[in-house]
Automatic annotation (TrEMBL):
Family: Belongs to the short-chain dehydrogenases/reductases (SDR) family.
Organism classification: Bacteria, Pseudomonadati, Pseudomonadota, Gammaproteobacteria, Kangiellales
Keyword Oxidoreductase carried by entry: yes
Molecular function, one GO term: oxidoreductase activity, acting on the CH-OH group of donors, NAD or NADP as acceptor
Protein name, entry field: Short-chain dehydrogenase/reductase SDR
Amino acid sequence: MSHLKDKTVMVTGASSGFGLACAKAFAQKGCKVIAAARRKERLQDLKEELKQELGEDRVFVLPLDVTSEEQVDSMFNAIPEEFSDIDILVNNAGLALGLEPAHQADLTDWNRMVDTNIKGLYLMTRKVLPGMVERKSGHVINIGSIAGTYAYPGGNAYGATKAFVKQFSRNLRADLLGTQVRVTNIEPGLAETEFSLVRFHGNQEKADNIYKGTNPLTADDIAESVLWAAEQPQHVNINSIELMPTSQTWAALAIDKVLG
Ligand SMILES: NC(=O)C1=CN([C@@H]2O[C@H](COP(=O)(O)OP(=O)(O)OC[C@H]3O[C@@H](n4cnc5c(N)ncnc54)[C@H](OP(=O)(O)O)[C@@H]3O)[C@@H](O)[C@H]2O)C=CC1
Ligand SMILES: O=CCS(=O)(=O)O
């Protein structure tokens, strides 16, 4: 039996993609899951689906906008006591918006990425961490990206937010020395979810084109990595996992040949 049984796991962005797959995977392992996101109806569907599948209700639905300091600050008022000792926090809520070069990018997009991927992630962490430290037990699993390590055209602010996730994860490890609280940064490459639909502001054709013929990663692939990191024995801290589809690799460095 998995040692995850009866652990409480909070997953942000549980209404779609990686977060949805993680919420399902943890519930199937016998965890209690706090499923958080803005789209409450989707979370309610997830709760019902898992109830049917597992024969018991293991999901608490938490409507939450991670960019709202007020909502994050008051979230424990809404969480029932049996879910309040969070053992694992999966900081997954996030998004990319736009793929234009920096000089043409929309500042509103940049602000939203910073608010969600950086501020949302640190607000959640700051809120949940004290309980973990007090209990001398816990695991923060952040969803970073290969975009936080490798530059690509149009990656500008999005990649920079994920570089924050990488370094914040490392610095958390430094701060948490001696507390038994673990930190992992999962860094996926191309994965087919609603990510590109969001990035292209609802343009389905553009989104589909990103994945066409690529055999991309799936949300379940990411959930499996998250679960694997969480299932390691207490003395093992997986610092990071970088994964890409086999069809993706690094581009060559670009050179602009300006001379004759
Ligand atoms: N797909 C990919 O190729 C990759 C994605 N990632 C990262 O993985 C994470 C998940 O993305 P993915 O599953 O692909 O994309 P999806 O668009 O499928 O899912 C994103 C999730 O984030 C939630 N979310 C967005 N903004 C907020 C907010 N303000 N408050 C609460 N929840 C929010 C959405 O829920 P709702 O709208 O209901 O609030 C949704 O559940 C992101 O951090 C993304 O950057 C990393 C590497 C690769
Ligand atoms: O984070 C997502 C992966 S990519 O689209 O930036 O390569």
